[in-house]
Amino acid sequence: MKHNLKFAVLALLVMMSVILSACGPAATQAPAAATQAPAAAAGNTIKIGALYPLTGDLAKLGEENKNGLQLAVDQINAAGGIKSQGGAKLELVWGDSQGKPEIGISEVTRLAEQEKVLAIIGAYQSGVTTPATQEAERLGLPFVVSMAVADKITDRGFKYTFRICPKASWYAKDQVSFVKDLKSLAGLDIKKVALLHEDTDFGESTAVGQKQYLKEAGIEMLLEVKYSASAADLTTEVAKVKASNPDAVLTVTYLNDSVLIARAREALGMTNIPFIDAAGGTVDPEFIKQLGATAEGWLTEIEFTKYAAGADVLNNAYKAKFGVDITGNGAYAYQAGFVIADALERSGNTDRNALRDALAKTDMPSGPTMVLPTDHIYFGPDGQNQNAPLFVVQVQNGELVPVWPAKYAAKPVILTK
Questions:
Q1: Which runs of E-coded beta strand occur in 245-319?
Q2: Bridge partner list, 358
């Protein structure tokens, strides 16, 4: 598989069509509920719902998703809209989960029944996305998961859920693969590991994968420490980890807790022990902004890096519009916009079942609308994107620099002695 990011010059996006050929598994018959739910296109506009935590503790991360998706839709519309549907423009209808599962469910219902959206993109948190996709399944409404990693989201046999990002167990698998490679990368032979993670679906499901892959790799798991992501202090939890004397620590975090862990790690004198996060709060620009030098040396997985070949084109477009670098959240939301547009081109109408069938047949190759480090996107029978690779980056001089896989490394891993 070729993992080079292939971007076209941004100006080409204005000229191009997002019509792509279709191939893939045969679509399944839609449930009766779907045929009773009318899809909406007002005039020459196709309404797409977008569900993220736009207020509350995770509003900053919700904004990253929102901005990435908005950039994609702006480019799609500027390029002529959905050509097979008379140049119809995409209109985003926003839903705010507030970071709460029950609100996420009610927003799916509102977007489907009142706003009459054709599909929904979202929803960032696994704890919100899991029940939100269940409601969408009940309504026969296609739901494209741009970011939310709990394995069970695509393990339930749903027909209307399609996930672009990796699932939690894949993050865990790559964390362990990186831990094993630290011997060749930095001369560090990891034999015993501690787990430290928040206690929602995100942390719990990733930890299940961590345990599995550590066992397969013959690496001892010393202990598992769970905590609430809304905690005001995590010194006690980090101290428990220190007492176990691990060679490395695998974490699963959101922003608030990642900052608390980093501060406790420094205060307890643990900066010589690698902490490796599963693309959680550590990938948020606020992590480095809030911590400064305390963030140095942290390792984390990430879905997108501006340092990858060609990634500067997307990053520059995003920065010109929003004033900051794009994150993995933004990049996956951006990609979701083009996945929806591609399926709409092939479906040729505004019927939810037709769109579902087109999504199931997605085979988006490398090209101007592919921003992920993969040769193509396609969904398995469970709706999971089968090509969703990850990088490991390290905070070096205030930047997230790719250090793994070795062939994509911009700089070597730096370990504190």
A1: 248-252, 275-277, 299-302
A2: none
Residue 367 burial by CB count (10 A; 0-12/13-18/19+): exposed, middle or buried? Answer: middle
Q: Is pTM beyond 0.85 here? A: no
Q: Report DSSP state, residue 253.
A: -
Helix (H, G, I), strand (E, B) or coil at 297: coil
156: DSSP letter:
S
How large is the average pLDDT for residues 161-182? 94
pLDDT, tens only, 399-413:
999 999 887 788 999
Residue 107 near residue 53, CB atoms below 8 Å? no
Contact 277, 260 (CB under 8 A): no
Together in a domain, 32 and 176: no
Judge whether 22 and 363 are in contact, CB under 8 Å: yes
Helices of type H across 79-200: 101-113, 126-139, 168-186
Question: 365: which strand partners?
Answer: 376
> In this structure, which amino acid lies at residue 356?
R
Cis ω for the linkage preceding 405 (within 30 of 0): yes
Q: What would the two tokens of residue 163 be?
A: 């996930």
- Here the CATH number for the domain that contains residue 86 is 3.40.50.2300
* Angstrom distance (rounded) from CA 248 to CA 183: 12
Burial status of residue 27 (CB atoms within 10 A of its CB: 0-12, 13-18, 19 or more): middle
User: Is 155 found in the same domain as 27?
Assistant: yes
What gap in Å lies between CA 147 and CA 129, rounded to an integer?
9
Q: How far is CA 154 from the centre of its chain?
A: 14
Q: What is the pLDDT of residues 111-124, one digit of tens each?
A: 999 999 999 999 99
Please state, in angstroms and rounded to a whole number, the distance separating the CA atoms of residues 18 and 97: 30
Q: What's the domain count of the chain? A: 2
